[in-house]
Specification:
mainly alpha, 14 helices, 3 strands, globular
């Protein structure tokens, strides 16, 4: 395997006297080192492979000037330059961990999240509020793996850091309460989960506004609590608010997209992590509406139209036709059950855009090769 070829045995005599090396992932005594950067160490091949897949192949050479610094003259690389490099490394690890989590690769996200935390401690010091994003990443990864004790531990550390920083930003507060709420749902403590999601919504509203898509995620998570409590009318109300916010947001984005229909952008309007999260949320809502005994066609039309627009704006031209047409057709059928429904025309217009998109050659498509 490629990952295995990157490791070589540590030669004790090649190390400075008294130097000990520890595994990048578990901090046990190391027996192997990365044969490329030679500044990263592992207890066994399994951990080297896990780190390579998780983050190391992205940052292998970036670690050399940081970790080899003690062997160099301080005149060559200043402390400030090293801190800047570490700050860049923190951002890379954060983005990689988020990307892995969005794909449901919780185990693969751990190495990036762990390194993000270690570098954050190096740059900002222990128990500082700047460590909270890394704690939240580690909590989310372990939540996906079912390690709830570890989730609780990481969130406790995040809470302590926030408590020590009374001027902590609103975004950190809302993210922390959102993670705490999800943990309490997982442990069955619905009353505490409700409290945390209420705080999540409050801080998100203060930072982003009532009609923000960020705030809407809090409404959705709170609806899950009410679902578990059997309070279906409240769930309907919250889902309706989430659908309203996203329908308005996606409609505005679609208007922008229409202007470039003859020259479509290569990138999507969303990064992958956000797209996956929104798609999952809207699909859950659509399934709820379709199974609801009241079966309100207007609600189904709005949510299905949201999914159709999201698919169209996704930027994946190989999938856009199938998904956008499928959800668009569901939305159209629902809207036509209500005479003069105000969404019928916009839905028809979107389906027409999907047809137009077929006539525009895209990079990598068969038509673009001629």
């Amino acid at each position: 395997m490629e990952a295995e070829s990157q490791a070589s045995a540590i030669i004790p005599l090649a190390l400075p006297k008294g130097a000990e090396k520890f595994c990048e992932l578990c901090q046990r005594e190391a027996r192997l080192q990365c044969s490329k950067c030679r500044v990263t160490f592992y207890c066994a091949a399994e951990h080297q492979q896990a780190d390579w897949v998780g983050i190391h192949k992205r940052i292998c050479q970036l670690l050399v000037p940081i970790r080899a610094l003690p062997l160099r003259s301080l005149q060559q690389t200043s402390h400030t330059e090293t801190q800047i490099k570490k700050a860049e490394l923190i951002e890379i690890c954060r983005l990689v961990a988020q990307s892995k989590l969005s794909e449901g690769k919780h185990q693969e996200a751990l190495p990036a999240a762990q390194l993000c935390l270690r570098c954050s401690i190096d740059v900002h010091g222990p128990n500082t509020v700047q460590l909270v994003p890394a704690y939240l990443l580690l909590a989310e990864a372990n939540m996906g793996l079912g390690n709830l004790d570890l989730v609780a531990d990481f969130l406790s550390q995040a809470e302590w850091a926030v408590l020590k920083s009374p001027k902590c930003g609103l975004t950190i507060h809302h993210q922390l309460h959102r993670s705490l709420g999800r943990l309490h749902v997982a442990t069955g403590d619905l009353d505490t989960a409700f409290y945390d999601f209420a705080n999540d919504i409050y801080f998100a509203t203060e930072e982003y506004g009532l009609d923000s898509t960020v705030t809407s995620r809090g409404y959705f998570l709170m609806a899950d609590v009410f679902t578990k409590q059997g309070k279906i009318p409240t769930v309907r109300s919250l889902y309706s608010e989430v659908a309203r916010i996203w329908h308005s947001h996606l409609t505005r984005l679609l208007e922008t997209r229409k202007e470039s229909i003859q020259n479509p952008p290569v990138d999507s309007f969303y990064d992958k992590a956000e797209r996956v999260e929104v798609d999952e949320m809207l699909r859950t809502m659509l399934e709820f509406e379709q199974k609801d005994t009241r079966k309100d066609p207007a609600r189904i039309a709005v949510v299905a139209h949201c999914l159709a627009m999201l698919s169209f704006l996704g930027g994946d031209f190989l999938k856009v036709s199938h998904l956008a047409q499928g959800f668009g057709s569901t939305a159209l059928q629902a809207s036509q059950l209500i005479p003069d429904h105000d969404l019928t025309e916009p839905i028809q217009a979107l389906l027409q855009l999907v047809k137009i998109l077929h006539t525009v050659p895209h990079p990598g498509s068969a038509e673009s090769q001629y």
